[in-house]
């Protein structure tokens, strides 16, 4: 090929690439044609269905802030490159989504696209919600449209360049989002398929329990083997016996999801306590049963062996509720004696109520103490708990050195492992 021809063809290839990229980044997102199927209920039954699905999908966890109007948004999501805020999704026509068409709503839930065609950030878990059926998305839409409109304006996101360019998300979505509803696996029964639908889509367990890659996308081949949310560890929930929940009975898993506690496995704190209270405890018995059936069949992965739950130590077995087997004088043990033992018991059986049982809890078996430190700082309560029956917040009561000392003592006493919690880690956890 002559030199000049070569340059010409290279130039036209480059031009084509620029045009293709331009089209890719600037072409409008098409609006889907949406219609409910013949199976969609009507009237009050449709609203009830929408309410159930909205709770199961836990929209309120992110779109309602403490003390704010329901679904009026404003919850901050701190990312390494800035902060984004959940928007107002009440039916208010100018501040919420009251003026949206059904098609625009379905497109947002399935493809992460806003009303004016802008690409949305995946802090809105549309990569999971994409799996919902059109009927279910429309039922949610119908229910949300009946809520009280709130005139709270949505807050503007605060991100650095280039992440403040929403179009950047297009390449991310091309790589990581499927935009397709769930398709039943014909080789499995209805219960399994329902469980897969709830776990992967509706209740989006993987948003917290699946690890992410450097680009913040879920590693699907390691699904449910343990992730991180807001500094809390969302444990491995694959059926691995040591590091996952393979050793839990089906009744244990169901109890944990429905009440936030499973006998012999501890209690849900942090983001899981909230997911249980707002959403999972309100799932129907059939849906919980389907979730358990599905979880039993996901590929088992052995992840985080250092945090595996081990049998109670000899010291714990020899202790009574009110008296430790050994008389230790360390700072951590003195704090435990004064501030923790009355509710938890030296033998970890839970003096104050069954939820305070520490035996078998993943949090006290993790030498890094990630959730333990956060729990001690922030406390944990179920709705309706009166003071004295819940886990108090100790952030103000103890210094970083004291929290680290009691955390390491708890890890050592209950699991026999050497806790590695440092005062610096406690200081960082206070900011999270
Ligand atoms: C884990 C947190 C989270 C959950 C759960 C969640 N959202 Fe959101 N949602 C967000 C965030 C954050 C945004 C803003 C994304 C952005 O600015 O790009 C958002 C954006 C939206 C938007 C776009 C609104 C607009 O003005 O552009 C809609 C619609 C929406 N969410 C509806 C829902 C519904 C319905 C549910 C429940 C089925 C839900 N969300 C659950 C975090 C969440
Ligand atoms: C918003 C994030 C989030 C969502 C959504 C979520 N989880 Fe969790 N989950 C967590 C966190 C964080 C923990 C750790 C709680 C603790 O240590 O007290 C946890 C703990 C658990 C545990 C206990 C594991 C152990 O070893 O102690 C089980 C079981 C569980 N989750 C199942 C589920 C299932 C099933 C779903 C979906 C139906 C789900 N979770 C949805 C964050 C989440
Ligand atoms: C007033 C009673 C009370 C006191 C005092 C108390 N706790 Fe708790 N603690 C609870 C209850 C109740 C729960 C379960 C919380 C829930 O269900 O949301 C809990 C939960 C926990 C958990 C999480 C359990 C799990 O299974 O993951 C840890 C760890 C913990 N407490 C450690 C401590 C430590 C350390 C102290 C002392 C600094 C302490 N607690 C003081 C009542 C108490």
From TrEMBL:
Secretion signal span: none
InterPro entries, sorted: Cyt_c-like_dom (IPR009056), Cyt_c-like_dom_sf (IPR036909), Cyt_C_IC (IPR008168), Cytochrome_c-type_DH (IPR051459), Membr-bd_ADH_cyt_c (IPR014353)
Alphabetical keyword list: Cell membrane, Electron transport, Heme, Iron, Membrane, Metal-binding, Repeat, Respiratory chain, Signal, Transport
Pfam families documented for this protein: Cytochrom_C (PF00034)
Cofactors (names): heme c
UniProt-annotated location(s): Cell membrane
Highest taxon listed in the record's lineage: Bacteria
Domain Cytochrome c: 38-148, 190-299, 327-414
Gene3D superfamilies according to UniProt: Cytochrome c-like domain
Protein name: Cytochrome c
Organism: Sphingomonas albertensis
Lineage: Bacteria, Pseudomonadati, Pseudomonadota, Alphaproteobacteria, Sphingomonadales
């Amino acid at each position: 090929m002559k030199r000049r021809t070569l340059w010409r063809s290279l130039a036209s290839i480059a031009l084509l690439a620029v045009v293709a990229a331009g089209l890719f980044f600037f072409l409008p997102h098409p609006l889907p044609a949406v219609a409910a199927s013949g199976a969609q209920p009507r009237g009050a039954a449709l609203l009830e269905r929408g309410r159930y699905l909205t709770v199961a999908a836990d929209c309120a966890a992110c779109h309602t802030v403490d003390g704010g109007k329901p679904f009026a948004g404003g919850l901050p999501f701190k990312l390494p490159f800035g902060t984004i805020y959940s928007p107002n999704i009440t039916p208010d026509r100018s501040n919420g989504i009251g003026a949206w068409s059904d098609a625009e709503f379905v497109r947002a839930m399935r493809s992460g696209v806003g009303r004016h065609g802008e690409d949305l950030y995946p802090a809105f878990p549309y990569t999971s919600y994409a799996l919902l059926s059109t009927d279910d998305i429309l039922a949610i839409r119908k229910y949300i449209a009946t809520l009280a409109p709130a005139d709270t304006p949505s807050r503007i996101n605060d991100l650095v360049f280039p992440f403040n360019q929403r179009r950047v998300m297009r390449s991310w979505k091309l790589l990581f989002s499927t935009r397709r509803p769930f398709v039943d696996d014909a080789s499995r029964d209805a219960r399994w398929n329902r469980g897969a639908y709830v776990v992967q889509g509706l209740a989006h367990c993987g948003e917290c329990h699946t690890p992410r890659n450097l680009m913040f996308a879920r590693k699907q081949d390691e699904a449910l083997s343990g992730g991180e949310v807001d500094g809390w560890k969302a444990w491995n929930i694959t059926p691995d016996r040591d590091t996952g929940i393979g050793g839990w009975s089906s009744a244990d898993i169901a109890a944990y999801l429905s009440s936030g506690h499973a006998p012999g496995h501890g209690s849900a704190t942090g983001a899981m306590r909230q997911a249980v209270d707002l959403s999972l405890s309100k799932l129907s018995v059939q849906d919980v049963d389907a979730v358990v059936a599905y979880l039993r069949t996901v590929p088992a992965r052995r992840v985080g062996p250092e945090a595996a739950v081990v049998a109670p130590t000899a010291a714990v077995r020899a202790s009574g509720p009110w008296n430790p087997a050994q008389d230790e004088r360390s700072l951590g043990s003195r704090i435990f004696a004064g501030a923790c033992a009355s509710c938890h018991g030296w033998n970890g059986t839970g003096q104050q109520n069954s939820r305070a049982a520490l035996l078998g809890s993943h949090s006290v078996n993790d030498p890094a103490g990630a959730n333990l430190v956060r729990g001690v700082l922030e406390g944990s309560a179920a709705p309706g708990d009166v003071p004295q029956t819940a886990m108090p917040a100790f952030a103000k009561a103890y210094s970083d050195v004291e929290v680290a000392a009691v955390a390491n003592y708890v890890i050592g006493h209950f699991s026999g492992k050497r806790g590695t919690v440092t005062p610096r880690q406690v200081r960082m956890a206070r900011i999270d």
